[in-house]
Design goal:
- By secondary structure, this protein is an all-alpha fold.
- The chain folds into two domains: about 80 residues, no CATH class; about 100 residues, Multidrug-efflux Transporter Regulator, Chain: A, Domain 2 (Orthogonal Bundle).
- The protein is about 70% helix and about 0% strand.
- The chain is built from seven helices and two strands; from the N terminus they run αβααβαααα.
- Strands 1-2 form a two-stranded antiparallel sheet.
- The protein is globular, with a radius of gyration of 20 Å.
- The termini are far apart.
- It holds the Pfam family DUF1836.
Length: about 190
């Protein structure tokens, strides 16, 4: 069980770009990349992995995942949207993210929507999610160990790891599928309008 606690700490599950870390002044693309690289360096799976690249940002802009920039600079709202995209892209397709963020982008541009307040709510929800996930991981690991003990196999550590991985992937897939259904629902509602 100690290995699981160590892994959870290493994952930095509650590492998000906070409102205080986002400057009030507009940033050039290289500055945006530096901000994200510094913040999420510990979340990378390996040193070669990039958190954010110029190509990624350009693809987000071309895909209209966020409203157009002005004078090659990214506003605070752009940074908040890029932060959301960063978190979403691990589970959703770029098309799904676009569908999800279309109305939010419209609100920001047309209604002077307070994205800071929304993002703060997002951070609050993710904080609670981390607590739930940590509890669930501990419970799941205990249950997996109990199931493995029922086997008569000398390689129980390996089998325990396989069952842990399969269980975590299964949970991830269920959450991803639920998120995709909600995006599909959004898309259907947009088509009805």
């Amino acid at each position: 069980m100690e290995d699981i606690y160590k892994l959870m700490d290493e994952l930095q599950l509650n590492n998000h770009l906070t409102l205080e870390e986002i400057p009030d002044l507009d940033l050039y693309m290289d500055q945006v990349i530096q901000l994200f690289e510094r913040k999420y360096a510990g979340a990378k799976r390996n040193e070669k992995e990039k958190v954010l690249t110029k190509t990624m940002i350009n693809n987000y802009a071309k895909g209209k995942l966020f409203f157009p920039i002005t004078n090659k600079k990214y506003s605070r709202d752009h940074l908040l949207l890029i932060s959301l995209i960063y978190q979403l892209k691990g589970a959703l397709s770029i098309g799904d993210i676009k569908t999800m963020l279309d109305e939010l982008n419209r609100k920001i541009v047309e209604e002077e929507f307070d994205l800071d307040a929304f993002y703060e709510r997002y951070l609050h929800v993710t904080e609670k999610n981390v607590e739930r996930v940590q509890d669930h991981i501990q419970e799941n690991t205990r249950e997996v160990r109990e199931e493995i003990e029922k086997l008569d196999d000398q390689d129980d550590k390996y089998l325990e790891q396989v069952l842990d991985i399969a269980s975590f992937v299964h949970m991830s897939n269920m959450y991803r599928r639920m998120a995709e259904r909600l995006v599909d629902q959004m898309s259907a509602e947009d088509q009805e309008k």
